[in-house]
């Protein structure tokens, strides 16, 4: 497992690195510089990112939340103190595990596993949501095209659908592509 540790404090980073070394199956990269952080993480291409922020200011915390939004990786963030606003912001930023009150070496494996599993579960939910939205948009386009054909040509709903389907098959295109073309044509002609 490739692990990137982000920590401006070399002392805190070494504690985390020691905890990971006990696992034995980790390739560890330590990043202590905030500049170019997203680029550096992309170069490392880790399986998980661990951020130990200690007791960050609001500005530093927001900067790291911006980094976590940009990374498509599981992220475990460690802070010494927190508040409800920071917890909410971490969730919105896609942080997979938000650990308050320090880092314990004996808990590192469970925190890594949790962060990775939460990240993958959230990614699946996002993919499912995108698929559902896409299917809904396709359905709306087909329904709009059927309405146009029903109004302009006096067809019933099954007839309008059959006409769209037949055209799609004859042209070797997807039904939704034909439906979108009908809707676009109607808009160009001054309807809808």
Automatic annotation (TrEMBL):
InterPro entries for the chain: ANTAR, CheY-like_superfamily, Sig_transdc_resp-reg_antiterm, Sig_transdc_resp-reg_receiver, WH-like_DNA-bd_sf
Residue limits of the ANTAR domain? 122-183
Q: Is Ribosomal protein a UniProt keyword of this protein?
A: no
Residues in Response regulatory domain copies: 2-116
- The yes or no answer to whether the keyword Metal-binding is present is no
Q: Which residues carry this modification: 4-aspartylphosphate?
A: 52
Keyword terms: Phosphoprotein
Example of a GO MF term? RNA binding
Instruction: Please list the GO biological process terms of this entry.
Output: phosphorelay signal transduction system
Query: What Gene3D superfamilies does the annotation carry?
Result: 3.40.50.2300, Winged helix-like DNA-binding domain superfamily/Winged helix DNA-binding domain
User: What Pfam families does this protein's entry cite?
Assistant: ANTAR
Q: What is this protein called?
A: ANTAR domain-containing protein
Query: What does UniProt list as this organism's lineage?
Result: Bacteria, Pseudomonadati, Pseudomonadota, Alphaproteobacteria, Sphingomonadales
């Amino acid at each position: 497992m490739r692990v990137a540790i982000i920590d401006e404090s070399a002392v805190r980073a070494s504690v985390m690195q020691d905890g990971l070394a006990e696992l034995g199956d980790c390739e560890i990269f330590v990043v202590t510089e905030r500049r170019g952080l997203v680029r550096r993480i992309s170069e490392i291409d880790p399986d998980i990112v661990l951020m130990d922020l200690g007791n960050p200011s609001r500005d530093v915390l927001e900067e790291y939340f911006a980094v976590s939004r940009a990374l498509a990786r599981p992220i475990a963030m460690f802070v010494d103190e927190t508040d409800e606003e920071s917890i909410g912001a971490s969730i919105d930023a896609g942080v997979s595990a938000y650990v308050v009150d320090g880092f314990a070496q004996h808990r590192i494996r469970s925190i890594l596993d949790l962060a990775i599993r939460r990240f993958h579960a959230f990614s699946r939910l996002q993919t499912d949501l995108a698929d559902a939205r896409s299917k809904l948009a396709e359905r709306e386009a087909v329904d709009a095209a059927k309405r146009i054909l029903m109004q302009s040509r006096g067809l019933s709903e099954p007839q309008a659908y059959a006409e769209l389907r037949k055209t799609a098959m004859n042209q070797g295109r997807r039904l939704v592509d034909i439906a979108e073309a009908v809707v676009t044509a109607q808009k160009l002609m001054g309807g809808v």
